[in-house]
Amino acid sequence: MNTQLMICLIIFVATLVSFLLNKIPMWLTSMISLAALFITNCIDSQGALAGFANTNTILMAAMFVVAAGFRRTTLVDTMCNSILKLTKGSFKLAFLGYLILTVILSNFIASPMVVYAIVSPLVCALCDKGNVSRSLYIFPLMVTAIATCGILPGPTAIQMSGQFTGFMETYGFTGMTFTPINFFFGEWPVIIVVLVWAMLLSAKFLPAQTEIETAEKKENKASAGNLSGFSNTAGIIIFFATIIILVFSAQLKLQTWWVALVGSLMMVLFKVVDQRNALRDIPWDMILLYVGALGLGTALTNTGAGEMIGNALASAVGGTHNNYVLGALFFVIPFLMTQVMLNRAVSAVFVPICLLTCSALGANPIGLIMLVNAGSLTAFMTPMATPAVPMAMGDGGYELKDLLKGGWLISIMLAAVYIIYTMTVFPAF
To answer: Is residue 346 helix, strand or coil?
Structure first.
């Protein structure tokens, strides 16, 4: 183990300990970690500052403003009242409807963060309308957006299957094609498991209320109904126009961060969001937390931590021909790594390792690639894995310990489904 890797791992462990102890704000820990990585040469200045210009950072900040603008319109309350009327006042049925909407959107939009940003204003308004703690329902909403991404044979699955087919051709698996329907046949029980957990179990492991949540409720009540008729209509049009363009951004050849940025600027320009206080709608502590997490993930990648773990995994696999042992390894290790590195980076590291291992063992890679992808997407126990997590932390007021407490059960449930079911349907041997 080289010196840089050892230093990087020490900083990483210290950062996690500080997050867990929560003696200082998490954003401050994240920035201290970033500074320490730079001063110890674990990351250069370009890598340290890249998080501030990262497209996901811009996308996240812009979507906060777009969502904030939409929350101020009368349509949010109208939709909540209509859904509650349709469900005869049942909060649970209304929440289930939003979860199903989230599942559908996550299979049309490849970014769980964008999906979360679309549905979260509605769920927050539903909670406020029913005088229910947001913190009990924001986390399961975020998990649903992440965990069900790309399972149905929609645009998201088509995009991912094309990438995996390209990987297989590159590593010598010619004549084999990864199709969008593979995801559905190999992963459909996950949708049921996630919905059951979100409806019946998740709230038992989450805090009932937070100071952040209480303060935001008061602010929303104070600003309710303050929009002019023109601004109210503009806010509704801008929100849905932004969402529709985001859904078809690939076909329109537009960058998602640019679409969200234009949407946020329009919200300010048309006075849906207060021009003097527009920046208050962006939770800068969560942005800084995410930027620092990006830097830490970059350092772990650059110093060879991913490669080291991958090589250790390949050695651990040895010559085993047990489908479930292989499945467990290729799910659990990416799952652990994706909590501290961006899920796309983890997938990029492990898909080649998976294919090389399958080539050496003479194994069918379809099911194992699915597990690598699934492990990389089971990313909701730290703010480092995907931008949807810090967004949810802002809405629900969660600390790291809340994410760990709220996420352990669904992580075990997903692991069991993927390892047992997927490897039975798509065995390696």
So the answer is: helix
- For helices 91-106 and 138-147, angle between their N-to-C axes, nearest 10 degrees: 30
Number of compact structural domains in the chain: 1
Confidence of residue 214 (pLDDT cuts 50, 70, 90): very low
Look up residue 357 and give its two tokens: 């291992």
Q: Which two tokens stand for residue 151?
A: 């399972």
Q: What does each C-alpha distance from 208 to 131, 134, 214, 353 come to in angstroms?
A: 12, 8, 11, 42
Provide the token pair at 320. 């085993």
Q: Give 136-170 pLDDT, tens digit per residue.
A: 999 999 999 999 988 988 767 876 787 788 778 77
Between CA 97 and CA 106 the distance in angstroms is 14
Instruction: Name the packing angle between helices 138-147 and 180-196 (round to 10°).
Output: 160
Count of alpha carbons within 13 Å of 281, Cβ hemisphere only?
A: 27
Alpha-carbon gap, residue 103 to 198, rounded angstroms: 12
Q: Model pTM?
A: 0.73
DSSP 277: T
CA distance 380 to 30: 17
- Name the pLDDT band for 239 (thresholds 50, 70, 90): confident
By mean pLDDT, which of 190-204, 308-322, 393-407 is the weakest?
A: 308-322
Q: Give the pLDDT score at 318.
A: 59
**Within 10 Å of residue 348's Cβ, how many Cβ atoms?**
15
Mean pLDDT of all residues belonging to the chain: 82
Q: What six digits make up the tokens of 243?
A: 């969402």
pLDDT tens per residue across span 91-147: 899 999 999 989 988 887 777 888 898 888 889 888 888 888 999 999 999 999 999
Residue 214 falls inside a structural domain: yes
Domain membership of residue 177 (yes or no) is: no
Residue 413 forms part of a structural domain: no
Domain containing 209 equals 54-151+194-286
What the block records as the tokens of 103 is 């599942």
User: Could you tell me if 249 and 259 are in contact, meaning their C-beta atoms sit under 8 angstroms apart?
Assistant: yes
Q: Domain for residue 13, yes or no?
A: no
